[in-house]
From TrEMBL:
<dbReference type="InterPro" id="IPR043502">
    <property type="entry name" value="DNA/RNA_pol_sf"/>
</dbReference>
<dbReference type="GO" id="GO:0071897">
    <property type="term" value="P:DNA biosynthetic process"/>
</dbReference>
<protein>
    <submittedName>
        <fullName>Integrase catalytic domain-containing protein</fullName>
    </submittedName>
</protein>
<dbReference type="InterPro" id="IPR008042">
    <property type="entry name" value="Retrotrans_Pao"/>
</dbReference>
<dbReference type="Pfam" id="PF05380">
    <property type="entry name" value="Peptidase_A17"/>
</dbReference>
Amino acid sequence: MVCVVDFHVVPKITNMIPVNSFDISHIVFPSNVHLADPTFNTSNSIDALLSADIFFDILKDGKYKLDNGNLILQNTEFGYIISGNTSRFSSGSLHCGLITKDFETLNDTLKSFWEIEEIVPTKFVSDELKKCDEHFLKTMARDTNGRFCVEMPMKDNDIELGQSKSTAIRRLKLLERRFVREPHIKDKYVELLQEYEDLDHMQRVKEEKPGLHYYIPHHAVIRPESKSTKLRVVFDASCKSSNGNSLNDILLKGGTIQPDLFDILLRFRKYVVAFSSDIKKMFRQIKVHEHQQDFLRILWRPSPEEDIVSYRLKTVTYGTKPAPYLATRCLLQLAHEGKNKYPLATPVIENSTYMDDILSGADDIITAKEMQRQLIGLMKEGCFHLYKWSANSEELLKDVPTENKEFLFNENDELVKTLGLSWRPRGDTFMYQMNLQEVPVTITKRTVLSFISKLYDPLGLLQPIIIKAKMMIQKIWLLKIDWDQNLPRQEIENFQRYVAELHQLKDLKIPR
C-alpha cells in the first residue's frame, strides 16, 4: 500500500505515553505476531501522530483477542497494535487531547453526535446573511441610554399572515391545565411574566387597531440543571396561522456570525488567567421597533378566573427565527463602536463570546483585570449587564459583587457549567459530570441510540471512550433489527458494561 502523508514538524507532540510503564509478562502473544511497537508498555515519547482519516487505510486482516477478551490485537501496515483494558495495568493520571470540530428528537441528537467531529467547509457569507446585515445597518438605532433598537428582517414586503388568536387561546388553556397538575410551575410562570411587564419588556394592548398582527403561543420549559433559571418561557413563533404561515415563515434567519464553539473552547485553554461571564437577559435588553411589536403579541392571564389579556412583547424574542442573529449582531456592533475606547474588550466580544456566554482570559492578572473593567464598561454602554463571573484567580473576582458571581473561592470546590463543559476554577480543570440515566430494563436499538447520542464532548477529550460508543452503534445497525426489538444478549451485556465504565468519568480531571 502507498499512502502519501504530509507531516507538520513540532518540538513535542504530547507527554510521554503511557504516563506510567506497566507489566505485560502475564500476556501471551501468538508466536506469529509482530508488534508495531514492542515496547508499548514502556513510557516513551511519541514520534508521529497520524490523523483519523489515515487510520482505516493502514488496517489489515488479522485480529486476536487476548487476556480473556479484554485486549485486542489488530494487524496494520506497521505490525500489530494493541488496545483494550486489563485490571493488571497500574493506574495513573490521564492526559488526552484531540482536535475535533464542534458544530433534541432522537434523530437530532444522534445527528449532532456524529456531526460534532466534522470539519466544516470554510465559512462563506450567504445572500441571506448579506441581506440581513444590510437591513440591520439601515434600521438599527440606539436610544439615549445606548440601548439597541432593531427591526426583524422579513423575506419581502408582501406579508401574508392569517388569523392566529384562536390558536393562541387554545394553547393558553392547555397551559392552564398543566398549571392545575403542576402548581409549582404556575407560580414561577406568573412571576416570570410579571417580571416582563415590570421591566417594560411587554405591555398591554389597550385598543385594537387595524393592521397586521400575530399572536405567539407560549409554554414552560424546565431546566433542572440550571442554577439561575430553572424555568423558561418559550415562545412558539413557528405556530401556523389560519393561512398556513407562521411568523417565522415570513422572517429571515440571518446566520451565524460568531466564532465556532470549538474555536472558543480551544482558545480558552491557552490563557494563564481564565474567566467566564454571562450577559444577563441578553435578548431582552434589545428593543424591537414599535411598528413591528404587533407581530410579537401574546395572550396571558395569571388565573383562569380572570379575563384573557393581549400583550405585545417589546424586545427581541427567543423563539423568533432571527433572534440569535439580531442579538449577536448588536454585540458585534457594540464592539465595533467601542473599539477605540475599549481596545481590550472588543476582541473578547468578537472572538470569545458564544451567544450570551463569554469565555476568555489573559496572560497575567493585570491585563485580565483591565480586560474585565473594559468589558463591564463597554457592555454597560449597550445596556447589557455581565454576571455569573467565574475565574481561576481570586484576585479577579475580588471586586465583583457576590450576586454577580457564579463561583466563590471558599471551602467548596465548586463546578461551573460553561458552554457544555464542567470547569472547576479552583483546580483549573475540566471534569465530566454526565447525567447518566438508569439503564432501562428493556434494551433496544432505540434506547441505546438515545443514551449514546447524549454524550457531549465538544473538545474531543473523550474520544477513546466515544469511539467505543460509535463502534457499538455500527455493530447494532448491522444486526438489521427493528427500533424497539430487544437486542441480542451479547449486545445488551456490552452496553451495560459500557454504561458502568462511563460512571468512572466523574473521577477524570483534565487540566484546562
